[in-house]
Design a protein that fits this description.
- The protein has about 425 residues and is α+β, with helices and mostly antiparallel strands.
- It contains ten helices and 15 strands.
- The protein has helices spanning about 5-15, 15-25, 35-40, 120, 130-240, 250-275, 290-305, 325-345, 375-380, 400-410, and strands at about 45-50, 55, 65-70, 70-75, 80-85, 90, 105-110, 110-120, 285, 310-315, 320-325, 350-360, 360-370, 415-420, 425-430.
- It has a five-stranded mixed sheet with strand order 10-12-13-15-14.
- The longest helix is centred in the middle third of the chain and has 113 residues, at about 130-240.
């Protein structure tokens, strides 16, 4: 036996496993054993660790690889399209019939053993002529490609099923997220609404407590003032009775004015007493609001004229009657006119507008001035008892508070709107007598 045969024999003994594989493989199974022994020195047994790129997409290749052990992944465009894990799986086979670059990359996914064989050496050890060999190779490659196509199609179907499931899950998650967001928004809105309601209720309770205390104080003050006013009224009556014949006309007029103003003061004291009582005990009559405004302006007109304040009356002539206490409503109007007068003290344009109109279920009285206005911070407190923006000694802070209580006792509303340096609007809304309208 010559040296070459000795080497082949030695190689045969060391690589019996590879020869067994070659004799059973689809590509070399038709070759005789002595031919396979000659083919073996041309083959290379290669081991790869996980993550090694065995073939690179777009690069030329002239090797055919036979998987002996492990698992490889085939990637196209960076996407995994196929996994090979069977002993005997072939990749790189297109290099036998084509010199084109690789159409995919092959990367080891585990520890891999492969048998690598140059494609140009395969045809040298075959009993077939080149044409027959080419036909065999074509049929073999067709079968291999068919198997890979089947695996790829199966994987594609699995991918599609998984993709549909993922889309469905994603839609469900999006719906759940949207519902959760809607619920959360609704909850936040409800919490905000409840918080506002609570704050409003707290403000009303505080206001009611303040007004209740004010009512108790007003009743005490009214009791103390009533006695001296009675004495003044009786004294004026006695002077008119016993000195009527010899009194100068001017003195007599002043005494009558004293008596009239005492009567008015007594009415106001009565109102202060009523302020602390149950609103249901008030004596109400049907009144013409325009007439009450005209009467209220009689006492204030001289003060307004002396301060060069222009009074504009825009009174609706067809207002329905309102059921109210005339003296109380006149007092509210007087308080609003006094506030407007003071607000116009340093204004260049001194204009005061009194307007009445009908709005849905309300008869509305507006007193609007072009004065100094009220800041937004102070506007929230103008109805509180004893709160005032006037200088010390110029206001008690009771005018709007008392007015607010009176309007509420008439089942109405008092709203104050103002812009700093632009003016203030006080709006009184009273329910009207429907049967008369």
């Amino acid at each position: 036996m010559d040296t070459q045969e000795t080497q082949i024999q030695h190689l045969f003994e060391e690589n019996r496993e590879i020869l067994d594989y070659l004799s059973k493989s689809r590509l070399f199974g038709h070759l005789k054993e002595d031919t396979l022994r000659k083919l073996l020195p041309l083959a290379e047994l290669v081991q790869h660790k996980p993550g090694i790129e065995i073939l690179t997409e777009g690069q030329p290749n002239d090797y055919v690889f036979f998987l002996l052990r492990g698992e490889v992944g085939i990637y196209a465009g960076g996407e995994l399209i196929l996994q090979l894990r069977r002993v005997g799986d072939i990749f790189g086979e297109m290099s036998i019939i084509s010199s084109k670059v690789c159409s995919a990359s092959v990367i080891s996914m585990t520890h891999v053993n492969v048998l690598a064989l140059r494609s140009r050496n395969i045809g040298q050890y075959s009993d077939l002529n080149p044409e027959e060999l080419q036909n065999v190779l074509y049929r073999l490659f067709a079968k291999i490609l068919s198997e890979k196509l089947f695996q790829t199609t199966h994987k594609a179907k699995q991918y599609e099923v998984t993709n549909r499931l993922l889309r469905k899950t994603q839609e469900e998650l999006q719906n759940a997220h949207r519902q959760l967001k809607e619920s959360n928004d609704a909850l936040e809105s409800r919490v905000e609404e409840r918080t506002q309601e609570l704050q409003s209720t707290q403000a009303q309770l505080i206001q009611s407590a303040k007004l209740a205390s004010l009512g108790q104080m007003a009743a005490g003050v009214a009791h103390e003032l009533n006695q001296p006013l009675t004495i003044i009224s009786m004294s004026a009556e006695l002077i008119l009775k016993y000195l009527n014949q010899s009194l100068p006309a001017a003195v007599e007029a002043k005494l009558k004015q004293i008596r009239q103003q005492v009567k008015r003061a007594s009415s106001i004291i009565t109102q202060l007493r009523v302020f602390g009582r149950d609103p249901s005990t008030l004596t109400l009559q049907e009144e013409d609001l325009n007439t009450l405004i005209t009467n209220g302006l009689i006492l204030m007109s001289e003060q307004l004229r002396l301060r060069n304040i222009e009074v504009i009356q825009d009174l609706c002539p067809e207002l329905p009657l309102v059921k109210c206490n005339a003296i109380q409503i006149e007092q509210v109007l007087t308080n609003l006119l006094l506030n407007a007068r003071d607000a116009l003290e340093h204004s260049k344009e001194k204009k005061l507008t009194i307007r009445t109109y009908l709005q849905k279920n309300w008869v509305v009285l507006e007193v609007k001035d072009s004065g100094c206005g009220i800041s937004q911070e102070d506007l929230a407190k103008v109805l509180d008892p004893f709160f005032t923006t006037k200088e010390v000694g110029q206001g008690t802070g009771l005018g709007l508070s008392v007015s607010h209580g009176i309007v509420q006792s008439h089942h109405g509303k008092l709203v104050v709107e103002s812009v700093k340096q632009q003016g203030t609007v006080c709006r009184i809304q009273l329910p009207y007598c429907r049967e008369d309208y």
